[in-house]
Amino acid sequence: MLLPAVIIVFIFQYIPLLGLVMAFQDYEPWLGFLHSPWVGLEHFKTMFEYEDARQVIWNTLVISTLKIIFNLVVPLVFALLLNEVYIMKFKRTVQTIVYLPHFLSWVILGGILIDMLSPEGGIVNRVFVSLFNIEPIFFLGDNDWFRTVVVITDVWKECGFNTIVFLAAITSINPTLYEAAIVDGANRWQQTIYVTLPSMLPIIIVVGTLSLGNILNAGFDQILNLYNPLVYKTGDIIDTYVYRVGLLNGDFSYGTAVGLFKSVISFILVVTGYRLAYKYANYKVF
Amino acid sequence: MFKRLFVSMAAMVMTIGLLAGCTDKEPASSDESSKSSEGKSVVTITTIRTLKDDVKFRKGEDVNNNPATRWAEKELGIKFKTLWTAPNDEQYYNKIRLALSSGQELPDVFMVADGLLINDLIRSGKVMPVDEAIEKYASPRLKEIFNKFPEAFYPATVNSKRYGIPRFSGGNGSDSLLWIRKDWLDKLGLQPPKTIEDLEKIMDAFVNKDPDGNGRKDTIGLTLASKNGLATWLADGSFIFGAYGDYVPGSWSKEKDGSLVYGSVQPSIKKGLAKLHEWYEKGYLDKEVGILDEQTAIKSFVAGKSGILAAPPWAVGWPIADAIKNNPGAVVEPYPLPSGPDGKIGRRGEGLTVGMFLFNKNFKHMDKFFEYWDAIYSYVFNDSKYFKYGLFEGYDYVMKDGKPVYDPKQIPGGAIDPGKYFLTTDIPTIPYMLYNLAEELYTTKRQPKNAYEYTKIVAQGEPYMKAATIVNQQNEYRIENEFSGPPTKTMQKRGEFLTKMERETFANIIYGRAPLGEFDKFIKKWRKSGGDDITKEVNEWYKSVKESK
Predict the structure, then answer these.
(1) A141 and B102: CB-CB below 8 Å?
(2) Which residues in chain A are contacts of B102 at CB distance < 8 A?
């Protein structure tokens, strides 16, 4: 029964890996991988020579680190709060509503956000202006704001998923632990600190580890739909850069090289994260 | 179990073969002739094409079976076989690239607009040079068009050989003019603009004198799209730069000495940027102008918040029709582009082609192809023996009492544009011809002589004809992009960086986040970071294509 799955993975995940050869060649489509001229590491050198490449690597790191942190902390806090809710109907409703944006595509959300965040008549600015009496903020066209917007909107879209994972972890905590804590005179806050959080540590580490692998994935769809020339300085990331260089400009080899660089770093991070998870949380997949 | 394993292994091996690009076999070419029902010999020509949502079929018909293919088979003895279709250009090009790198045989005839892909295809040696075929088979009138617009062949010219037949554009079909809210002008007692200065007065009034009468200061002067460059196909800003010099951003212009220079780095662009910054500060532009692409920029005009839009004549159908529908009482009129302080006028000129037709080097029926080509063109030339009243009865017209009727309501099932069924993906054009005709029809008020004149011009309505006339009368001000070749080596390497730097600098100057002096720094950096090399390569290309005949 496993065979079809193995074949699919092999065909669609492993065979395309051959395409990585392009990164070391001056790839010409009609020559294919087999006959394109070999250039070795030249594209990688280029990548570190150009300031624009260094800038996008930096942007990617900043945006994705922020996303990883907030995508871990916000759902965790949210799950803990939601766990305190005893009206099941309310809990379920909140859970569903939080989870819903996960299913919307960034193409749609991008359009909605551009409208909502508009400095002229966008709902967010209208609220801000009337509450704090400030000048309207040009969220999507301001280098000081762009990353914040990217991180907040991403957390808003994706936190529902992690919340559900954490909620599941909470329900699997052995109730006797709480009973013992209550006997010892722990209040709800102390129960959370001394029972819930330590019991959830493994799953927190797993979620964190898995997201480490995405540290160079700052969210292609999201950035592509939100960014613009005004915020290239802070918003342009590796993936959008590869897209423009590789697909729009037709420099396939260089695009592949940058993409490969990204994958290698991600791989190293996943392995490190896994080692750490094993060491500190005794978490093991294999 | 073993059988299944064998099948999947076979599939895998085939996929590997496909991806590795080592299938070199020559599939059977598709020139087998057969006999049609009437005993005429029929030639099969294979093709591929994009099939966008605007192509509608009657029930039971598809890309291989529609009035256009039936007509070609019956009248010309050509059976078109569309091997596959793609819903958009991107997927279309990807599929061709994949076919190319996996060594698959190309279809007999197909159209490509992407310069890099055209070049890749030509250099792969799988595409046929067409010089000889044009000489041998093209009808005199086609040759005449070809000779009149030799630049149209440049995108597919390599080593002085021509490899493609251009699918001509309207020439000036997508050139813009000003669309202004006439009702606002009248309300505020203003005259249409003749100069940039007039335009500024109008924009000032549109912003500060509450033209929509809602008591709020919520209107802007000019709708502009700048996210994808300031010279573009809708909400175009090129006229602002054209008023101050002979260059528009993003285009390669010809200098007096015959060399090409890049528009965005010419000193006159600075004046245009300074103006845009001033306009932005005064509130004439959308506050979000820096992040608006063409589709989002027009929202302000459609919503009745903006009074001026630079767009081509076809904008009457969209978005101007929407603006009129949304804002009761709105009157939108076309006006000529205003002139700058030295009397200069200029606008981005559309390129000559919308794509090149390429041919498999094993294709043996160029004669048939040119026969087909000429037969479709005969409709435009008004001497067609096939399309007397329109293209296909029951699609774009019906006969009532011996007379053609073009009213969509009278055509059973509604009107459908069968021009899109042709290989040309639309009724072919001869550059500048359509607007020339439109001007003639509009100024002389003569009756349309044939179906082409009627459906393509008169039926589009008076505002369209007026706009086309204005565009045509300002033809001398076109600033065309003279570079139509594939991206050069340095463009591939550094083009992305340079474009990014250009857009960023321009946006920052308009917003006042960078001083105007930043423009001079930009030029220096542009030249140093590959711009000089690109200019050299572009000129080498230009020389090489000009030397071909």
Answers:
(1) no
(2) 32
Q: How far is A242 from chain B (nearest CA, A)?
A: 10
Q: How far apart are CA B98 and CA A273, in angstroms?
A: 37
Question: Which of the four pLDDT bands, split at 50, 70 and 90, describes residue B39?
Answer: low
Percent of chain B residues topping a pLDDT of 70: 92
Q: DSSP states of A200-256 as a string? A: HHHHHHHHHHHHHTTTT---HHHHHHH--GGGHHHH--HHHHHIIIIIIS--HHHHH
Which pTM was predicted?
Answer: 0.84
Q: Which residue on chain B is closest to A112 by alpha carbon? A: B296
d(CA B117, CA B93): 8
Q: Do B22 and A32 lie within an 8 Å CB cutoff?
A: yes
Decide: A79 and A163 in contact? Cβ < 8 Å.
yes
Contact B404/B451 with Cβ under 8 angstroms?
yes
Predicted local confidence at residue B38, as pLDDT: 54
In angstroms, the CA B448 to CA B364 distance is 40
Report the gap between the CA of B5 and the closest CA in chain A (Å). 9
What angle (nearest 5°) sits at the alpha carbon of residue B356, between those of residues B355 and B361? Answer: 150
Q: Band the pLDDT of B348: cuts 50, 70, 90.
A: very high
> Tokens in use for B145?
């068009």
The tokens for B80 are 């078109």
For residue A138, CA distances in Å to A145, A231, B339 come to: 8, 11, 33
Give the pLDDT band (50/70/90) at residue B34: low
Q: What is the DSSP letter of B385?
A: S
**Which residue has better confidence, B496 or B3?**
B496
Mean pLDDT of chain A: 86
Beta-carbon separation of A29 and B120 below 8 A:
yes
**Chain B partners within 8 Å of A33 (Cβ):** 20-21
Binning chain B into helix, strand and coil, the percentages to the nearest 5 are: 45, 15, 40
* Structural tokens at position A119: 């400095």
* Pairwise CA distance, residues A19 & B19, whole Å: 8
Mutation pick from B98, B207, B291, B497 vs chain A, by most beta carbons of A within 10 Å, is: B291
Residues 117-136 of B with CB under 8 A from A: 120-121, 123-126
Q: How far apart, in Å, are the Cα atoms of A68 and each of A43, A52, A166?
A: 29, 24, 15
* A244 contacts in chain B (CB < 8 Å): 496, 500
Mutate to test the interface with B, among A7, A249, A252, A258 (most CBs of B within 10 A): A249
Residue B375 pLDDT level (bands cut at 50, 70, 90): very high
Residue from B128, B49, B149, B138 nearest B91 by CA? B49
For A50-54, B238-242, B319-323, B461-465, which range has the lowest pLDDT when averaged over its residues?
A50-54
Question: In this structure, what token pair is assigned to residue A235?
Answer: 């918003």
- Chain A touched by B214 (CB under 8 Å): no
A263, A255 Cβ separation under 8 angstroms: no
Classify residue B61 as exposed, middle or buried by CB count within 10 Å of its CB (0-12, 13-18, 19+). middle
How many Å apart are CA B402 and CA B422, to the nearest integer? 26
Distance CA B190, CA B458 (A): 30
Rounded average pLDDT per 10-residue block, chain A, 286 residues: 89 85 83 81 82 85 90 92 88 89 89 86 87 87 91 91 88 90 90 89 82 79 88 89 80 85 84 80 68
The reported pLDDT for the residue numbered B368 is: 94
> Three-state SS for A86?
coil
Measured over the CA atoms of residue B282, residue B284, residue B287 and residue B288, the dihedral's sign is: negative
- Residue A62's CB is within 10 A of a number of other CB atoms, namely 15
